[in-house]
Amino acid sequence: MKAFTCIAAAATLLALSAPAAAQFAKPEDAIKYRQSAMFIQSQHFGRISAMVSGKAPFDATVAADNATIVADISKLPWAGFMPGTDKGGNTKAKPEIWTEQAKFKETNEKLMAETAKLAAAAKTGNLDTLKAAFTATADTCKSCHDAFRNK
Ligand code: ASC
Q1: Ligand 1 in reach of 46 Cβ (< 6 A)
Q2: What is the pTM of this model?
Q3: Ligand 1 pocket mutation pick from 38, 73, 140, 142 by most atoms within 8 angstroms of CB
Q4: Interval 88-113 mean pLDDT
């Protein structure tokens, strides 16, 4: 009974504390996972990019849908940068991800914050508001890639 209570409590704690936790059978799976999440993000961010640059007509609903997806997906890649995944697959990850973990975590959190603002901006339906948030998000993507991703 005691052991059961303990396991049940541990399971509940885990479920509550790790909403975006993912487990990987091998390092290559973690690399594929984080790259896939980044790819999905870039596709949806690209649709917003087309609108703010005038290459596609501005549609507030489409922008908001895509921005919400970007904000949701921005939570996912980080679980894939677990220890032991610095090499393998076709990763462009720089060793600094693991040697400067505090700085890396800060940039991850910055992206999640900026994409949440992007989603909120898109929901206003105002193109200028969206543009400003888009630029701030793109700058955040770029500064993290410059610091932590090989060319
Ligand atoms: C994208 C994409 C990136 C970022 C970056 C922003 O759509 O694939 O890597 O935006 O170019 O500066």
Answers
A1: yes
A2: 0.85
A3: 142
A4: 97
